[in-house]
Amino acid sequence: MNVKLKVLSAGVLFFLSQGMEAQTDTTRVRDIDEVVVVGYGTQRKSDVTSSLSSVKGEEIANLNTPTFEAQLAGRSSGVQVVNNSGEIGRAPVVRIRGINSISSGTSPLYVIDGVPMFAGDTGGGNTPANALADINPADIEDMTVLKDGAATAIYGSRAANGVILITTKKGRGGKFSVNYNNQFSIANVVKKFDLLQTPDFLTISNEKSGAANTVWAKGSEYNTDWQDAVLRTGTQMDHFLSMTGGLGKGNYYASLGYTTQEGVIMPNAMERTSLRLNADQKVTNWLKLSTSMAYSETGYEGLNNGYNSISGAMFSAVRQLPNTPIYDPSTPTGYNIFTEGTTSRVGQWENNIPITSNLTNIAYIVRNNKYSSDLTRFIGSAAADVTVTDWLDYRLQISKDRSVTTGFLYWNRVHGDGFSRGGYIDNNYLNLDRWNIQNIVNMRKSFNQHNLNLVLVNEYQKQRSNSFFADGQGLSADFFGSVNVISGSYTTQYSGGGASENGLISYAARFSYNFANKYFLQASIRRDGLSSLPEANKWGNFPGVSVGWTVSNENFLKGNDALSELKLRASYGKVGNTEIGNYPYLGLYSSYKYADYTGIGYSQAGNDQLQWETSTKQNIGADFGFLNNRITLNADYFVNVNDGLILAVPVSPSLGVPNNSINKNIGKMENRGFEFTANADIIRTENFRWSLGGNLTLIENEVQTLVDGNDIIQSQNGQTAYLIREGESLRSLYGFKYWGVNSANGNPVYYKADGSLVQGNIANSRYYGFDPANPGTLGAASSLSNDDRYILGNTLPTYFGSLSTNFKYKAFDFSVMARFSGGNKIFNVTRRELLNQDFYNNGTEILGRWQSAENPGDGWTPRLWGSRGNFINLEGVANSRFIEDGDFVKIDNMTLGYTMDPSIFEAVGLTKLRIYGVVQNAFMFTNYSGIDPEMESNGMDYNSVPRQRTFSIGLNATF
């Protein structure tokens, strides 16, 4: 076997080195000396000793996503991006080397051109609006992800969750150039829920009601697909115009973008106009001024998609009765709506009873209720760079990030949520304002073979948020529900608001040294003062250190073409998490209302010993290059220990403390794993190029310390499903372990904690012992209690990554990227709800139900019994019957392009014209029974908007 491997390896090396045009030494040097962005500056790639990864703008230039962080999915090891909804405006979940907190924020710090950005949802409460979607992805030059302690320590208390640095495009000087990109896309849902059609619906519904000797369903004239009533084919358009050039000793870059996107669910949509101007001017030999300004206006149209809202779009659409129509010309609205007294619901048509819970006609709701948010965003900075000597520079940068959101909501008074209120309207306003001032001193010195660099930083940051709202109900006419709250148009009014602020003062230093480009040392220290913490604890120190050895620059390896690069790295750093709220240490009072009286009450117990959460990050890595870097491999092993995590410590109810708890720094959790990145230029000739790339992350999470070692049992959206326990992964699924169906009577059977079996007797909703050898007999009376719950699986993936390939043949180019993830479990709540026992529609899985001892069905789905779904399906708690593997492989992006011969357009000054087509979310391979295993929130899947598949065509023209 060893001989065969040696022969194979030799053959591969021969093919790569002889079968293609080899890279020159010049190419290799240029790659190694590439400059990468780091905190408060740049470094040569060859000098980097910490763990970071870069994504170039051209890699994501043609992807159709409204927000740039979604485009990171699969493009960097250690970075997991989960787009868990097809709803435009929802921010994806971004995790860098896992989750680093139990109760505080887990989002990375985003820095654009040196400006720390607002991130998260800024929609004002009416519709999701991702703050990062205000940045046009087409303006991005590159993104750098800082992952380990040494790379992130320069950002100190804000870096526990990693840092993503975004660099926008700058002017390149020289000839004036114009670039125009146009893209048109069509979006469809990848997959819909498999629901019963009318014939099966009638059978199942009346089998449910048969237990009570009644008939629920009647009428087969219609076979309505209610999902089609809320889902659609969306059209999307993107225009982007940029200009770059130079004037004298200055350079400039300007862009104008306009994007419209229709979501796959009505009326979800986005419209964005963006402007950007980046300019720099060398005033004298020692002074350069630069500015970066971006302005955007973004409008979102949203909807109610609550997981259990009666007017939630997907919640309602999958439950509507298929044998009833959407429209009824005999009603004033033209929709199938029944209204009488205080009741307004979808009409039951020929059925003998109305739909459960008086569900509304969801088609009317999505067309008549309004949810919108309009955002105005300004991100700007001005900087002065002073060259004091040839080895000393000073930079002053002043920046501002301001986001203003105006939200609007209208519930139609004729039907739905607004019916009982006589119509309901809401306006709200949210202003986020952040100032940031940075003083940066950069010293560089080289002598003999010693190279030194010292960066000193002083940073001030102040931010404030304020909001208010005005509500009204009892509208005098639907006319007043169109645009705004109008005085005198409603009978009952409400108003409110709030304000908060915090500040940060920081001092930092980074020292870098290398000898002969072989031996590297980098150390940094940051001292942060945060207003969100008590006086005694508001200051903290955050050190980082890394070392590196470029072995390939040693004489015994220098000039070795087979092993062209070998670098060993190690790092350590300590960082913090400031996403703990603005006043977490104070005892607070809040406004309270009792009847018609207003007052104040105790709302938060203070803790003057509270500190920020800390994360200690360790990393060992190696970088390899083979055949003049035709093949590269990066490998890292990391351990992140998150300590001092803020947890609620229970106190005696007799103390009168709000929520009977006080927050303290007690928790501890660890993430550890491996990262691998590989790239290879397989073929590189004059007419044909082929490259391969991929990355893999293996990661484990373990909770190590909780309050007195006690478990924490958590709920989400009405589902008690999580366990946080020492020695286990964070938020492991926790619930009852399902055995299957008693084939003799159709009862569900569960394991008790001691391994014995109990069956839930559907006839009387009680539990009895179960003997598989004697299924026809009910055993002794028993129970299924909270003590019988098991750990059913971890919700965090243990591996994820991607594979990509790129081909270029003459003027044609083709690329494909596949993403994969797995090792996690998902509680498929939607699947359970589609097996409901009420007068709703069901998923096709219910056809496998138990019908008799002679026809026991699939052995997994119990017998039907109307209105007893809570007992049959154990609603409200996790159940292994509905827990599935979250593993998947997706062909995520496929791009085909053709670049036309520029000589054809020489007369009109066109230097480049490329046409291309892109398919995103093209194919998926998974055993998960739901729509998409990525449609999960903390390990639960429930009624999300289906993901979309987009087909795009575009052109890129440069003059």
UniProtKB/TrEMBL annotation:
Entry GO terms, CC: cell outer membrane
A UniProt-annotated Pfam family: Plug
Membrane topology category: Multi-pass membrane protein
Superkingdom of the source species: Bacteria
Keyword Signal: yes
Keyword annotations of the record: Cell outer membrane, Membrane, Signal, Transmembrane, Transmembrane beta strand, Transport
Cellular location(s): Cell outer membrane
Chief place where the protein resides: membrane
UniProt signal peptide: 1-22
Keyword Transport: yes
Domain TonB-dependent receptor plug intervals: 45-163
Family classification: Belongs to the TonB-dependent receptor family.
Protein name stated in the entry: SusC/RagA family TonB-linked outer membrane protein
Native source species: Planobacterium oryzisoli
